[in-house]
Amino acid sequence: MVQLYHRYGALLATLLIAATAIWVLMMVVLPYLVMAEYSFHPNLPMMQQGGPDDVYTLSNYASLFSGIDLLNGELPDDFRVFLRTIWGSTLVTFISLVVCYPVAWHLAKAAKPEQVGLLILLLIIPFWINEILRTFAWYIILAYNGPLNSALLGMGLLDKPYRWLSGSGGVLIGMTYAFILFMMFPLINAIETLDISQVEAARDLGAPEWQIHRRIVIPHAKPGIAVGSIMVFVLAASSYIVPAVLGSPGTRWFTETIYIWFFEGQDWPRGSAYAFILLGLCVVFILSVMRIFRVGLTDIAK
């Protein structure tokens, strides 16, 4: 704050801070406050809102868990979708980490400096296209008579076309592709700061490559892994376009359930409660990742 005033002067710095505060208040704080207010009220007709029946309640939050019978294995549909979203987002995060780690290592330490810029540009260029267009491109690729099935049939890897869009496969592929760069760049930034002499010393002592990465590179890259995991999980859990386009009725995402309660069910209180439950899930995941990797906010900010 002090540096801002020293750099831009009192008037300009005050205007910048005021504009930022107004933007955060209008675009972030107030909408969340309105949704929080909605989430604690019953869904009543407009004429009854504000009347004696309009009282604060936790029923909208409890509705997600009502009807659970673990003994008989019965779970309500919305709760099944919630669990599917947790599992799917976690799997997308893991797949992104597995795919990105060798590429990030190559770009950060193995590739020649003149090649790094070109390789990063090739990674970024596809993401200059709108997310909706990229998602529909995957819809065409994964279609029953699409290019992917045609290629696999031509190579003899399939006897008949596979229905990629009838299960969770298409959603996982689309989400991994959509959010992979959010794992890639934190990993690259973290690995770049590693002193390569540590790796060379381990090689001179006869350590195999897998042990070098397990004992040296991965521990050093923990902040990057934590940041990438947080960003990919949060974006995957809150995604709507990818599961809506590439999914099927049996693979509905929790964001789609929220949309249904808001706009098809016209139950804004329950939709708001579900949105805050999803927000709470993301917060729990962030705190869990920070604890597992033993990193703090300062490490993540690097």
Automatic annotation (TrEMBL):
Pfam families given in the database record: BPD_transp_1 (PF00528)
GO terms for cellular component: plasma membrane
Family annotation (CDD domains): TM_PBP2
Bilayer disposition of the protein: Multi-pass membrane protein
Intracellular or extracellular location(s): Cell membrane
Keywords: Cell membrane, Membrane, Transmembrane, Transmembrane helix, Transport
Main location: membrane
SUPFAM superfamilies, sorted: MetI-like (SSF161098)
Transmembrane stretches, start-end: 12-34, 81-104, 116-144, 164-188, 224-246, 273-293
GO biological process, one term: transmembrane transport
InterPro entries listed in its UniProt record: MetI-like, MetI-like_sf
Domain ABC transmembrane type-1: 82-291
Family the entry assigns: Belongs to the binding-protein-dependent transport system permease family. CysTW subfamily.
Name the UniProt record assigns to this protein: Spermidine/putrescine transport system permease protein
Native species: Ancylobacter tetraedralis
